[in-house]
Amino acid sequence: MSIEVNNETETEVDEAEFAALARYVLDAMRVHPQSELSILFVDTDVMTELHVRWMDEPGPTDVLSFPMDELRPGRDGEVSGPGQLGDVVLCPEVAAQQAVTAGHSTAEEMLLLTTHGILHLLGYDHAEPEEEKEMFALQRKLLLTFLAGR
């Protein structure tokens, strides 16, 4: 699995941990081992530009996902086909603000957001209540099992 992590901010990021999380999530979701994923950390100015351009919403957001080959999780014990999963873009400054509200560390918030972004790349959404329930339960399970294994 090819996972590229780039930090374009002044915030210290443990790139190896985010790559390990992504690998864990993709393995758990039975994504083909030859698939590719990019994780990018950007500052608020860049995230604001992306949020306005792609979502037509003002200000920065915490995470954006840009799917490429529209890969889906493997089903019934089989893995998905290989391909480019896409890009997950995170804003550590927004994550830090959310972490205070949530009562945990910025690193934990960014790990949560990374998991969230990957699930979006795999076709999960939370626009409807049932979708939200499914996605957030899966996100929680994946993150907690990753953290328990560290």
From TrEMBL:
Its EC number is 3.1.-.-. It is an enzyme of class 3 (hydrolase). Zn(2+) binds at H116, H120, H126. Its cofactor is Zn(2+). It is found in: Cytoplasm. Keywords: Cytoplasm, Endonuclease, Hydrolase, Metal-binding, Nuclease, Ribosome biogenesis, rRNA processing, Zinc. Belongs to the endoribonuclease YbeY family. This is Endoribonuclease YbeY. It comes from Cellulosimicrobium cellulans (Arthrobacter luteus). The lineage of its organism: Bacteria, Bacillati, Actinomycetota, Actinomycetes, Micrococcales.
